[in-house]
Amino acid sequence: MAESDASGTAGGLSPPLARLYERARLPAWPLPPALTDLYGGDLGFRSPCVYANFVASVDGVTALGPEYPSSGSAISGHAPADRFVMGLLRACADVVLIGAGTLRATPGHLWTPGHVCPVAAEGYAAFRRGRGLAADPQLAVVTARGDLPAGHPALRAGALILTTASGARQLHGRLPAACTILDLGERPELPSAEVLAAARAWGGSMVLTEGGPRLLGQLAAGGLLDELFLTIAPVLAGRGDTSRPGLVAGLELLPGRTESAELLTVRRHGSCLFVRYAMRGAPPAAEPSSG
């Protein structure tokens, strides 16, 4: 991406995001002026909050399959606006929570605001300093089996590894010293409520999850997801012989169970849409409108 100009507008993100709809009286944190201009307004959350950020094709695909690393970038087309919003949502977080599959699928990635959108890194850093936060959010990785690439740069930078007793044995002595392994007991799977409680105790109350669909499904099944940010990329991905999940995997909801959502904001950049929902099964994310 191009460098920022004097006004703080990142190359490739001009004009800024256009605000098409916003529910009244949403929480608003003070953003640096450059971020406010680029985002087309304010952003804020009630705390504590678990919020997810995904990109999907028009036909609902969020991952192209295990043989396609960094498939989210392929779906978004590396759109500068999507990368800016991803960085902004990370800048709001105490903890970024991901699954082991997401870590394996993005071999060179760091889950920090500046890594995904370097041109806005200064604004993200100023925002976090203003809120009294560490330079970057903490990374937490969920793995029941302990199947992690020990040389991944995100692990070298330090992460909390949430795993089972079996996974802890598998990882013992294999990970960088900056990592902390938390053994959640002898069990085949990790309860999402315990995973979330451990991540919050370690890093803080604002938890962003970026994947994958199975982890999102577990959070939704437990009624633990407060908000969802979804970028709808103007592309068709298609489905053939490759497994290409949507937002939720490993969980069937309809027709037996309805997890409804309330629309909070819609923004647009070019033909990309940026949609924010409050999950109705979770505490409200916004004040009731006076109207």
Would you kindly provide a brief summary of this structure?
This protein is α/β, with parallel strands linked by helices and 291 residues long. Helices cover 26% and strands 22% of the residues. Strands 1-9-10-8-2-7-3-4-5-6 form a 10-stranded mixed beta sheet, sandwiched between helices.
Description:
The structure is a single chain. This protein is of the alpha/beta class. It has a single domain (28-235, 263-279), classed as 3-Layer(aba) Sandwich (Dihydrofolate Reductase, subunit A), CATH 3.40.430. Helix content is 26%, strand content 22%. A ten-stranded mixed sheet has the order 1-9-10-8-2-7-3-4-5-6, with helices on both faces. The longest helix has 12 residues, at 80-91.
Relative helix content: 25-40%
CATH class: Alpha Beta
- Looking at CATH, the homologous superfamily is Dihydrofolate Reductase, subunit A
**Unreliable stretches, pLDDT < 50, 5 or more residues?**
1-9, 282-291
Count of helical stretches? 10
The portion of residues forming beta strands comes to: 15-25%
Give the strand order of the largest sheet, numbering strands 1, 2, ... along the chain: 1-9-10-8-2-7-3-4-5-6
Give the distance, in angstroms, between the N- and C-terminal Cα atoms.
42 Å
Structural class estimated from helices and strands: alpha/beta
CATH topology group: Dihydrofolate Reductase, subunit A
At CATH level 2, the architecture is 3-Layer(aba) Sandwich
SSE run = EHEHHEHHHEHEHEHEHEEE
Total DSSP E strands = 10
Total domain count: 1
Q: Please state the CA-atom Rg, rounded to the nearest Å.
A: 18 Å
* Arithmetic mean pLDDT: 89
- What is the global morphology? globular
